[in-house]
Amino acid sequence: MYMNFVILHGSWADASQFDEVAAELRKLGHNVYVPEFPGHGVLSNDKNVTHQQITDAVVDYIQKNDLKHIVLLGHSFGGTVVATVAQEIPDRIDRLVFSNAFAPLDGQSLYDQLPPPVQATFKQLADTSGDNTIMLPFPLFRDAFANTASLEEAKAMYGKITPEPASPLFQKLDLKKFYSLQIPKSYINLTEDIALPPGPFAWHTNQSSHLGFYRYIEGDGDHFTTFHMNPKMIADKFVEAGRE
């Protein structure tokens, strides 16, 4: 049975992050929609955006396209948007999928989910940017976000990223309604993804445990590379996570 995927990208990314995966899902007969966030990609002219503006943009996109029976899937930062969007339009969503994604508890921010050394780095980068953005230094991107890539592949991916608006990462989120919803959830964990390092802050089981009951899907890959280098495997994991 075909599914209606709405895929939400993460930080230092844009809708093009999922071009190859979307193509594989469409080959399988699924509908795929990848909205662009304000402050990102083709909408990156104004970096002074809030988490609410991103949420509103995704809700507006879904409503304008009259999308229903959605598998709403978020990667990384996109997990926080999955949660806030689900609160707005729960009746349009059949399943929520978190792909190595943040799932803050009520009243928390994405920033609250980070290990203290990463918090300090992000705060310093935002404070010294001059426009409240965070640009990943290449060594951090290479080792934590593209650790399975060759050096050439990592450089090519890094060349496409732009500074990330900082405000949405620091905003405390009211997620009381999200945690009361009865929409089924799935968590995809790529085991080589160390953007959140192994230990108490790991994607699984730290972020995943916030969701309560969920379907667990596991695969190989890192935070950025695998979407481009093995999109068929990723598409298969997305289908496994989204099925009834």
UniProtKB/TrEMBL annotation:
InterPro entries: AB_hydrolase_1, AB_hydrolase_fold, Sec-Metab_Biosynth_Hydrolase. One of its GO terms (molecular function) is hydrolase activity. Gene3D superfamilies: alpha/beta hydrolase. Residues 5-149 form the AB hydrolase-1 domain. Transmembrane segments: none annotated. Coiled coil: none annotated. SUPFAM superfamilies: alpha/beta-Hydrolases (SSF53474). Keywords: Hydrolase. The keyword Hydrolase applies. PANTHER family: AB HYDROLASE-1 DOMAIN-CONTAINING PROTEIN-RELATED, ESTERASE_LIPASE_THIOESTERASE DOMAIN-CONTAINING PROTEIN. This is Alpha/beta fold hydrolase. The lineage of its organism: Bacteria, Bacillati, Bacillota, Bacilli, Bacillales.
